[in-house]
Amino acid sequence: MDLALTRRGDYAVRAALCLAKWGGDGRYVKIREVAQAMALPASYTPQVLRLLADAGLAEARAGRDGGYRLTRPPGQVPLLEVVEAAEGAFTLERCILRGGPCHWEQACAVHAAWSAAVQACRDSLRRTTLADLVAADARLEAGGGIAERGLPPA
Q: Over 60: is that where the pLDDT of 9 sits?
């Protein structure tokens, strides 16, 4: 099984990380800077940043000194909010065994275990902030490994 983000989710997380890293002090980061720093397609980066703005996580300012910045300090932005801005609500809606909508009145034998796993993942993403990711990224750039970055190992 592969628990992965869509390309849009991947780009949104990378764009939010960029805003946290280079705009964490309140500075506006230009679209082209986000695209270049995070290896995002220049033509798609405005749409990704708009997703973050529509979710209330970022704000835009036009003009020479404009760009995008986070609406809150990176330590107050949970990764879950960024993921859900791009991917939609991270909830259990499809029965893992039957494939259709998940109904509590007709729950399958796997429902409770799967629901708990989804909740554990949500909790982990909720506890991890953009500031945590900036710190982890800095440690990785300095040659640190996964165990050193302060996040649970994969």
A: yes
